[in-house]
Amino acid sequence: PELTEDMLRDAINQVAPSQSTLRLLSAQQVPRVHHVTFSTAWRRYVYLLPARGLGVSSGALRRQLAALVGHSLDYAALGRKVPKSKSTVCTLHAATASAVELGEEEAAIRIEIVGDRFLRKMVRTLVSSAVWAAQREAEGEAGAHDLLLRVATSGEQKQSAHPAPARLSGQKMQVRRLSYPFFARHPQCHR
Fold first, then answer.
1. What is the pLDDT of residues 151-179, one digit of tens each?
2. Gap between the Cα atoms of 189 and 164, Å rounded
3. How far apart are CA 52 and CA 78, in angstroms?
4. Which residue among 36, 53, 91, 156 is the one 20 to 30 A from 28 at the CA level?
């Protein structure tokens, strides 16, 4: 039997832990050759870092990330356990950092990254390497203004920082949105 949007919505509502925790916004039938992971046109990840003790501002992180946007670059240095036969070239469509308030006294920095594809652990390694590069820049290290770009495209994993944890201070890195070629929306970071 063919699944309808109503059937999918009912199935999701039945398994949701509480009302509105999961919801179906829309559904569309796709060809059988469609693969949920490998057919994406782009993906958006959001990572929250506690601002306290970080030693860098969202502006410093934004400057480091900006150099990576809009270019097809080889990110082999940021991937982990990537098979030799797999391409390490990716394009970041957007990458930004902004200050956010999580509670009354809890400040955080929200890093949002949109790309056509990502390597294994690339986003977490990119986040920790961006923090490291922004810290070097804040300390006045010569040439640190483009340090993240040089590290990310160096081809050497030892040049990059270790991947940031998937869960930090109770906050979890999240895939916020996926898009497939048959959808027309273009990726942009939350403003």
1. 999 999 999 999 887 765 555 545 555 45
2. 21
3. 25
4. 91
